[in-house]
């Protein structure tokens, strides 16, 4: 059975070579501008149009806004206000409430930072995986070209 496959494979390769020879040279592809914000591909690699720049930009913007919000999210000490107003007795309870809100806001800010990091990491992983698949396809195509 192996012999039959080898014979058919040899025949198919010969027919393909004759078709290629009779077709003549193919016109060179027209260069197209890449929509990619990524750097140019390495020599010998095709531009897959993988665009991760906008995602990185959004993640960076998220981090910037979050850092600015952290600086502005300070709540005044309710007990200090109480000391300046006679009869203020809710200062300690207000401090507990304010402290709880500040802790919760910081937890939420940490979640936002983690989401921005995950977004960047995920984008990088997808781009890397797509490039690896393209490299594998290119290698497999090279084997077929040699056939």
Describe, in plain words, how this protein is organized in 3D.
With 147 residues, this protein is mainly alpha-helical. It is 71% helix and 0% strand.
Break the fold down into its secondary structure elements and pairings:
Layout (H helix, E strand, L loop, with lengths): L1 H22 L29 H20 L5 H7 L6 H55 L2
Helix pairs in contact: 2-4, 3-4
Describe the structure using short key phrases.
mainly alpha; 147 residues; 71% helix; single chain
How is this structure best summarized?
The chain has 147 residues and is mainly alpha-helical. Helix content is 71%, strand content 0%.
> What class would the helix/strand composition place it in?
mainly alpha
Q: What does the radius of gyration come to?
A: 31 Å
Strand content: under 5%
The major pleated sheet works out as: none
Give the mean pLDDT: 74
N-to-C terminal Cα separation, in Å? 21 Å
Low-confidence stretches: 33-38
Approximate shape: rod-shaped
What oligomerization state is this entry in? single chain
